[in-house]
Amino acid sequence: MSAIPTIFIVITVAFFMMRAAPGGPFDGERQLPPEIEQNILAKYDLDKPIWEQYRLYLADVVLRFDFGPSYKREDFTVNELIALGAPVSAKLGLTALSIALIVGVFLGSFAALRQNTAMDYGVMGMAMFGITVPNFVVAPLLSLFLGVWLNLLPTAGWGGGDFAHMLMPVTALALPQIAVISRLSRGGMIEVLRSNFVRTARAKGLPEGMVIRRHALRAGILPVVSYLGPATAAVLTGSVVIEKIFGLPGLGRYFVDSALQRDYTVVMGTVILFSTLIITFNFIADIMYGVMDPRVRANR
């Protein structure tokens, strides 16, 4: 029930913060006669008091799901730009998040099963390195080595979402999440492997592989399930930078360009969409946690 008030707060804060920023959407244009400038402002309701602008915008978004026209891309509405960029951002983000989950859970479980060995220290060392180095540093380095020096992969462009064009952006976006997920998986697995029900399963003579797969792994990845919401937020916000670095035609590039140009409606539409996705994924993560943990279902 808190999702709707949260989205309302996001819309309100983003709206007034955009208006409070210096400059406006038409300040960069050549000097226009006052009459023409007034007509342009009136066309987009920018001549009205800010509270009236807010009321009109909120009505369009809530009642008609209409984010309005783009101030800088005159041939497009914000809804059309979202429809163009969302598939690219979705493919990039979901691919990166899926890879991060698979690789991170595997590495974390592997390290937990070999606790305090060289393998464990190696995996956790790489995880710490992945956490400390942000993706906006990894992305240019990948582009420099693999694209410019070795000429193995294209440094920019989407190419229809083929493997060559997606490899570097997905890698840069997934590496920090792999690091976090592997540490969470390791901690969860170590705790579960010492629990009573795992010792009971081993005492019954079950094969070690079955004990790990059917008993320990399901409970051990619960911290990862809880992290899915923040991970989604990190991937979405990270894709804004990654898309700009690699020149991908996704929502991130539209967001950055529009923020610099004070294209209010595009920035607002992107913020609302991202916020809704983050809230939705947090809700899904809570449901998954309850399904996977019997103790949560019993309390409810």
Description of the molecule:
With 300 residues, this protein is mainly α. The chain folds into two domains: 62 residues, no CATH class; 215 residues, MetI-like (MetI-like fold, Orthogonal Bundle). It has 13 helices and no strands. The longest helix has 36 residues. The relative contact order is 0.14. The model has no long low-confidence stretch (mean pLDDT 85).
- Supply the CATH architecture of the largest domain: Orthogonal Bundle
What is the CATH superfamily of the largest domain? Answer: MetI-like
Work out the helicity level.
over 70%
Q: What's the N-to-C terminus distance?
A: 16 Å
Main sheet: strands, sense, barrel: none
Low-confidence stretches: none
% residues in beta strands? under 5%
The coarse silhouette is elongated
Please write the CATH class name of the largest domain.
Mainly Alpha
In the CATH hierarchy, the third-tier topology of the largest domain is known as MetI-like fold
Continuous helix count? 13
What would the average pLDDT be, to the nearest integer?
85
Q: List the secondary-structure elements in sequence, H or E.
A: HHHHHHHHHHHHH
Helix and strand content put the structural class at mainly alpha
What is the number of domains? 2
Radius of gyration: 24 Å
Based on DSSP secondary structure assignment, what is the total number of beta strands? 0
